[in-house]
Amino acid sequence: MKGFRSVDVKRISLTNNVFQLIGYENFLITAGTLKDYNTMTAAWAGLGYLWNKCVAIIFVRPQRYTYRFTERFGRFTLSFFSSRYRPALTFCGTHSGRNVDKPRATGLTPVLTGTAAVCFREARFVLECRKLYRQDLAAGCFLDRALQKKVYPKRDFHRIYIGEIVKCYVKSARTTSKKTRLGKRT
To answer: Is the CATH number of domain 4-171 3.30.428.10?
Structure first.
């Protein structure tokens, strides 16, 4: 990918705490092909080591448009951005790809990874994942019933996807900046 370098995921050094990175800065989950994909903003995920593999764990509700792409395709990406892209991520989290072209509206540029997964040129780093496992959350498995009632009053449980992190791409130092459509400097 132009503007990125591939690094071993075991060697990346995050500039911030993983809980801050995922829970408060947000990121984009993307699945599909360059001609047929969708992306959504997420704040729930996990990174870790499972089945002797570096993995990412994501959560997608069935009513989300991205769900159909995550189901259909064997790979997904997680694109992480600097804080200047907060308006673009907010837009992608509050508008459906069924109704709007998110990249056109935000100025984000979809690009292909080396294995033809979709991510965004403006990301500061990208995790490319190969799906290993999926399962729906189940009402009967919640030990904290108050949590279930609070987060899932409509019983619209997320599907969990566990993906092996097969590539990690980090923004190269020589990338150029441009303006996004939401008015922030990149």
So the answer is: no
